[in-house]
Design brief:
By secondary structure, this protein is α+β, with helices and mostly antiparallel strands. It is built from ten helices and twelve strands. The chain folds into three domains: 89 residues, Arc Repressor Mutant, subunit A (Orthogonal Bundle), CATH 1.10.10; 119 residues, no CATH class; 91 residues, no CATH class.
């Protein structure tokens, strides 16, 4: 990635989603506001050479950049006199979504050391509806964010709207989540997909900061959901061929090996052979996300204790089996 590419990327991002950058001019972006936003991004990354050319933004340079954006992104940006820039013919194609995703992920990796307190990453695809960089800066600089969120089943279909303190961004299972807080809803996990109807970073700073420690908050959960269920040691038997995988890719940071398979390498997978089974244990809340994690490993793992957790998994397997009767 070059500094010129990054400047053009942010020109497109700012004009296509101005409210995220604090520009509220009826969807128009005056040249002065565009330049001011680019200057702010440069100022926030003063020691980073990747951002060197963000403040090279004369009207002539931006005009050249708009031609490049038109040819590369297939996005047409027009200008209305006395109003500013706006999106003309513009469709977020799959190719453009991929550019957004890869650029944002590149920036996350580029800033990995500086942003490690604010972002937990795994593998994912990132929604083009949300810009992570302004969100991270809102977390870092304690700006309030305004959200309108239409929930689905897991959110009881409720609509949440208001100002929140942004706390942490976590990517899990190909989805991005924003942890945020306000007095009405407490700590809340917003999935950054199309449930987000609007999201903007305000110019107001949080008056009464709440502290958030991601390691502590997610300590006993798999995923993002924190429930009222008590965490406990859950014992899981694992077939030898998958035991190696879970040894290198633990289910959870608490995972401990109880016993290793007596026969670690076998050509035939005889699941009735007790010697191919090892045992691990994890200290987690046995909630819905734990269940989903267990089910994805198919017949290669089996919960053996506690009995109520074993029964919980068995009950869901029986319900699934009934679909095929």
């Amino acid at each position: 990635m070059t500094p010129e590419f990054l400047r053009r990327y942010y020109i497109l991002r700012i004009i296509s989603n101005p409210i995220v950058y604090g520009i509220e001019k009826n969807e128009f972006v005056p040249l002065e506001d565009l330049q001011r936003s680019l200057d702010q991004l440069r100022s926030n990354n003063m020691d980073d050479p990747l951002y060197d050319k963000l403040n090279l933004h004369s009207q002539k340079t931006i005009k050249r950049d708009l031609e490049k954006i038109k040819s590369y992104y297939k996005a047409i940006i027009l200008h209305k006199r006395n109003y500013g820039y706006y999106i003309g013919t513009f469709e977020v194609s799959d190719e453009l979504k991929e550019v957004y995703e890869k650029t944002e992920l590149y920036l996350l990796h580029h800033h990995a050391h500086a942003w490690k307190t604010y972002v937990t990453t795994a593998r994912s695809s990132l929604s083009s509806q949300v810009d992570l960089v302004p969100l991270i800066q809102a977390i870092e600089q304690h700006f309030l964010i305004e959200i309108t969120y239409h929930g689905w089943y897991d959110d009881s279909f409720k609509t949440i709207s208001g100002f929140f303190q942004a706390l942490h961004i976590k990517e899990i299972n190909k989805a991005w989540y924003l942890m945020a807080y306000n007095e009405q809803y407490g700590f809340y996990a917003f999935c950054l997909d199309n449930r987000i109807k609007s999201l903007s970073v305000s110019k107001q700073r949080v008056k009464e900061l709440v502290t958030f420690n991601s390691n502590h908050y997610f300590k006993n959960v798999i995923g993002i959901l924190k429930s009222d269920i008590t965490a406990e040691w859950i014992h899981i038997e694992v077939a030898n061929h998958h035991f190696k995988y879970l040894e290198n890719n633990p289910l959870h940071h608490s995972q401990q090996i109880v016993t290793r398979p007596k026969e670690l390498d076998t050509h035939n997978l005889d699941y009735k052979n007790p010697n191919i089974w090892g045992e691990i244990k994890v200290y987690v809340e046995p909630n819905y996300e734990f269940l989903m994690e267990i089910l994805k490993y198919n017949l290669w793992v089996k919960v053996v204790s506690p009995l109520h957790v074993k029964a919980y998994v068995k009950h869901h397997l029986e319900l699934m089996l009934s679909y095929y009767n």
